[in-house]
Structure formats: C-alpha cells, structure tokens
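Tokens as discussed.
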C-alpha cells in the first residue's frame, strides 16, 4: 500500500512539473517570404508550332528542389510557372502538401509533348496526382491557366535556361 502511494505521488509530481509552462513567452519565428527567381523561359506551343503562351520559369532539377516545388508560396503571377526536370521519362505523381495556391499540373513526355493534366489541384491536398503516362518534364501553373490558354494533350513545351 505504501509502495502504491509512493508511485502515485511520483506520477502526480512528474505530471504537474511537466505541465508547468515557463513564464517566458517565446517570440514567433520570422520566416522569409519565398520569392520567384527567374531561371528560364518556356514557350508552350501547338503541334503546328503556333505559340500558345510564353512564361518565365523557375527550374526544379535536383531532388531537393523537386520535393519542395512551390511549397510555402503565397501566390504566383500568371506569367510564371515552375518546371520540374527529371533525368528520365517515368510515371510521375505530385501532391499539394504545404502548397498554398491551387495549380494546374501538366506532364510532358521526353519529347516535350504534353501527355496529361491534373487541373485545379487544391492547396494542402495530399492526394496523389499521377501523370497516367510516363513524363520527364512537369509544369506547374496557376489553376485555370491550362483551360484559359487552351493547352491540350499533344501540345509542346520548349524552354531554355537564363543567366
């Protein structure tokens, strides 16, 4: 009985001490806003070569950049996008974890031909958004632009890096 009282007293003491907060209030951590950095220019083209739209792009071509993508961005101008470049063509899937803006995701094959879309991907949704077809390039734009610009499967992307 004494042993049970000692154990119970110890548990109560530990839980009381662990629940006490320090009187000091912690200052909020200030984070820097992530801003667009133009790393290239992309032209979206119809199969006959007619220009659909030209945009400035950020390029995600390493593992960290591809995993982070447009996460934590509050907005993006309509004449901008992010182009993900992979070393090979393969089935791809994206999701919207920590992404605050709705996006259109366009998957392109190794020959730069659009093979599929995920339109109006919703912020913070962790549902897998697969390419359906093998893709080597993936372009993220503000939601609605794929329809506004009439981008279709079979259209092409041409891009170049800038200094």
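Sequence:
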């Amino acid at each position: 009985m004494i042993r049970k009282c000692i154990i119970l007293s110890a548990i109560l003491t530990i839980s009381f001490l662990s629940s006490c907060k320090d009187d000091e209030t912690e200052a909020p951590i200030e984070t820097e806003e992530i801003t667009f950095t133009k790393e290239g220019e992309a032209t979206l083209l119809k199969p006959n070569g007619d220009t659909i739209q030209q945009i400035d792009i950020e390029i995600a071509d390493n593992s960290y950049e591809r995993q982070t993508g447009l996460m934590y961005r509050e907005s993006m101008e309509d004449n901008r996008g992010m182009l993900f470049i992979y070393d090979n063509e393969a089935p791809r899937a994206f999701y919207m974890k920590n992404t605050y803006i709705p996006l259109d995701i366009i998957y392109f094959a190794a020959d730069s031909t659009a093979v599929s879309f995920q339109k109006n991907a919703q912020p913070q949704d962790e549902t897998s958004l697969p390419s359906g077809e093998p893709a080597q390039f993936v372009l993220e734009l503000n939601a609605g632009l794929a329809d506004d610009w009439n981008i279709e499967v079979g259209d092409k992307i041409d891009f170049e890096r800038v200094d």
